[in-house]
Task: structure prediction
Amino acid sequence: LVGPQGPPGPSGAQGVQGTRGLAGDEGHVGGVGLMGDDGKLGTVGGVGPAGPMGLAGAEGLADDWPHTKFDCPNAATDTMKLEHCNRQGCRLEVFFAGEWGTVCDKNFARENAHTLCRAFGFPSGFAKLGYGFGTSSYDKIWLSNVMCVGDEGDVGDCKHSPWGVVGKCEHKQDIGLCCTGFKTGSLGRRVGPSDFPRCREARTEWARLVDCDYKKCRVEVFHDEKWGTVCDNGFTDKAAGVLCKSLGFSQGGVSRRAGHGKGMIWLDNVRCKGNEKNMEWCPHSPWGKHSCDHDMDAGVCCLGEQSAPPPKAPGPKYECAGGSQSVSSGATRLIECTNKGCRLEVKHADEWGTVCSGGFTDINAKIVCRSLGLPGGRYIRDYSGRYAKQGWQKVWMAETKCSGSESWIGSCKHKPWGINECTHEQEVGICCDRAWPKIV
Result:
């Protein structure tokens, strides 16, 4: 008989771990889960505070920009500049006669832009017509009808109408340029003039040309120890030619109104024929007698080569000047003129009479000539007895002595009117020298 099972024996020692088994095959991908419900839209957050201002950027070099979407580049030389630039172009401005001005687009060839942009240092460029490019700060429009050859360094060296002669051009016709590429070339320079040729000054002891500009100089003459001007009544190119040649200019000159003088107006109604050697010998009104103001001062622009003025030509050998001039206290006249002189007569108590030559001097003669508007003079003793028929009137004055400041011979010291022992043979004569043939 088998007995009952005994209790289990103690556990045996752990066995050694076996080797890892091979990996099983990859399982199938599970199905997509169901989409969850949409979430609710959250509330909008508040605007945050402004951030600090960024640092200023560095200044750009506009004239070195290539032509892209930016404004056309500005540029400048000594006598040209491109201003008021936008994306279409820049206004071309030019300097002449001390003043900036613009260029009219009338007959402006588009090829000019290449030439002028090269003068600004750019490789090329193009012209913009009819844009105006802003309101010009200059009144002057200097050029029109510009045509460049291709090698000019300035618009003033291109062919164009005379400076300032632009017809009916207005600033809305100011030409514009837009230069392209990088500014790497050298700047152009003007070869031609930058100002109008100025009329030339001149000076002698008897005449001078002053306050000259490119149109004229004011004429001034020296008389009675004072400089004074000349009114332009009757003053023509012939008078200008006579004056300019006497001042050493080879081709005479042209007359133009100058104005703006000061002091005396010495001459008026100067009417030269053109063959006189000195303007003073042309017919004119008496010295200091005129109907002008300084707005009418004569001017000239002398032409040709300028050399040293020739010596002053002597006056023409006319008979001594005759004439008459009423004054407030009487009158004076020179009559019976010969190449030696004229008999002096004065009017007193409404009656003409002569003057005795006893005690008469050249100072007295100068007073007579000046009162008649004539320059200088001398007396001739016993004129009627030697050179002319004798007078028949009273001998009004004798022992006449003038100081030199009187305006009329009757104002000088003399014996009482009509009280003298002179005969008609002793009547004084006067020769007003440097005279002209006719008082006008």
Observations:
- Residues 56-68, 435-440 have pLDDT under 50 and may be disordered.
- The two ends are 193 Å apart (CA to CA).
- The helical segments are 112-119, 237-246, 362-371, 383-386.
- The CA atoms of residues 369 and 432 lie 6 Å apart.
